[in-house]
Amino acid sequence: MKSVESGCAKTKTPAILSRFPPTSVNMKMSTLSRVVEVGLHACGIWPYLPSTVICRLFWIVLLGTAQVLQYQYLLIHYHSDNFSDFMDGMSSAMAYTLLFIKLTILWANQRTFSDILQMMSTDWKNCGLTDHSLYITTSRAKLSHRFSHWIIGLQVIAIVLYSCGVLAVNADEVRQMNVSAREHILKMKLPFTVSTSPVYALIMILQFFHLVMCGYGISLVNSLVVTLIVHIGGQIDILRDWLLRAFSKNVVNTVNGITIRTLITKHQRIVVFSQNIENLYTYIALMLFVSDTLIICCLGFIIVTSIGTPDGPAILVRSVLFYIVMNLETFIYCFAGEYLSAKSQMIGDAAYDSLWYDLTSRKSRVALLVILRSQKRLTMTIGKIMDLSLERFTNVVKASASYVSVLLAMN
Length: 411
Prior knowledge:
It contains 13 helices and 2 strands; from the N terminus they run H-H-H-H-H-H-H-H-H-H-H-H-E-E-H. The longest helix is centred in the middle third of the chain and has 50 residues, at 197-246. It is mainly α. The N and C termini lie far apart (54 Å). Strands 1-2 form a two-stranded antiparallel ribbon. The protein has helices at residues 14-17, 22-26, 34-42, 52-76, 83-108, 110-125, 131-169, 173-177, 197-246, 260-306, 312-353, 361-374, 390-410; strands spanning 381-382, 386-387.
């Protein structure tokens, strides 16, 4: 499938040209940033490519091998005296289990994702009906690119700091003299004993590579949902603009190519696009809320218990940003659901604010139907059980804090 590109390069007018530099006007635009698109190819999510099977096998082997070694470590150290190390290993193991579940769900919904890409491509081709539509579509694409870069960049920084924290813990004299006593970046039960420095260095390099790959995959899935939500938000803004233009006093059947049929089709496409996002991410959100609550709890426990200990600064370096990133992941999904619900209500408000009462009976009935349909909000749900909202995010934070208090009391 071809990349989602702009099909409206020849429709630009001097009014819109003044808003963008010449280089950005002539470039091929896409709502998906290049780094996200490459990641979708590498993770085997991009549909119907010859390399899809190979990429999926690579991730299955990469994650499957690491997960077996990680959970073996947890089973062996379940009754360990160092409970913080156990919680650290469990938090990282659960994070990568969640990544494997996310990828599996996206692989299983390849057809739905293909429909989403086709609809985005059509939206780009139709963005030249008005100058304002082109401006909104392009600005939303740039906004999604920025969000994607920030999410991926923050994940990379968290990985680097986490690795540096492990190296800082290994800086004491005892661990420098005894290679087998040194900590690894990821808590794993290796099938052999690490007794020499070259072998230890090789293990650390491989684990860092694994960590970078998994961090990229986690941030990629989060960036994709942000991109889709920003895109549909832009399409809702375009529909609102069209409603105000078409339902105006003393107008003919078309205004800048906008007809009643165009409005109905646009609204229906937005509803279908929202349903596709819901089908793609509802079960991902369910698994995320179950696992992230426990992961945030584990990391919070590690941070609290490390304060005042000799290795406390090093543990804080590797755990604090990891804690922030996991909270940010939950916030992204909750904010996406809240944003989609709020934007969908604006469609009915725009139709109501237009001069629909001054139009013919046929056009006014269309406006009333748009208002009625908009009363049913577009939402993202957690496993089709409850809506994603900012209130859900506060519940996750409260629940995690409660679990940390219980663990501190039991410790």
